[in-house]
């Protein structure tokens, strides 16, 4: 799936609470970072629901800053909450064109993100050819649309 030709939908890792989804993703990221030095990994692990780790603006801001650290300064980054959610897909598209390898976005417990269906819908839009997405969900709280 991760090496499949584009366009590829997000890879969905699902399971019950405590089934090892987060551990699987963290071990996979560590292994892939060693094996694929040209791949940029942008990842976020959501802690508890309704905590700052589940706030969409803060998640996207963190991913954007990490993305921009590899390419440009963050001077063009808007800190306005409504704009950062809107601008991330454009930054991703622009910067992925300059990156020689793949960019893999991993979001653990995406179903715990506040208003995920509204703020994270860019994940299912066509992404640049070298961008892949992996998300995990709790089968008990996953929106049916996913």
Give the radius of gyration. 15 Å
Low-confidence stretches: none
What separation lies between the terminal Cα atoms?
Answer: 17 Å
- The structural class is alpha/beta
- The level-1 CATH class: Alpha Beta
Q: Please state the second-level CATH architecture.
A: 3-Layer(aba) Sandwich
* Sheet having the most strands: 4 strands, parallel
According to CATH, what is the topology? Rossmann fold
The helix content is 25-40%
Instruction: Estimate what percentage of residues fall within beta strands.
Output: 15-25%
What would the principal axes of the Cα set say about the shape? globular
Number of strands: 4
Number of helical stretches of at least 4 residues: 4
Mean pLDDT: 81
Strand and helix order: EHEHHEHE
* Total discrete domains: 1
Strand order of the largest sheet: 1-4-3-2
CATH superfamily: P-loop containing nucleotide triphosphate hydrolases
Keywords: Repeat
Domain Nephrocystin 3-like N-terminal: 10-133
Pfam family, one: NPHP3_N
Protein name: Nephrocystin-3-like
């Amino acid at each position: 799936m991760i090496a499949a030709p584009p366009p590829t939908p997000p890879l969905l890792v699902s399971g019950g609470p405590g089934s090892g989804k987060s551990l699987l993703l963290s071990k996979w990221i560590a292994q892939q970072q060693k094996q694929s030095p040209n791949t940029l990994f942008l990842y976020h692990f959501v802690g508890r629901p309704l905590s700052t780790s589940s706030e969409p603006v803060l998640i996207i801001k963190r991913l954007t800053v990490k993305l921009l650290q590899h390419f440009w300064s963050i001077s063009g980054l808007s800190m306005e909450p409504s704009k950062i959610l809107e601008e991330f897909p454009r930054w991703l598209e622009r910067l992925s064109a300059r990156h020689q390898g793949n960019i893999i976005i991993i979001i653990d417990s995406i179903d715990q993100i506040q208003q995920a269906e509204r703020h994270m819908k860019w994940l299912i839009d066509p992404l640049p050819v070298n961008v892949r997405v992996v998300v995990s969900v709790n089968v008990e709280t996953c929106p049916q649309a996913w």
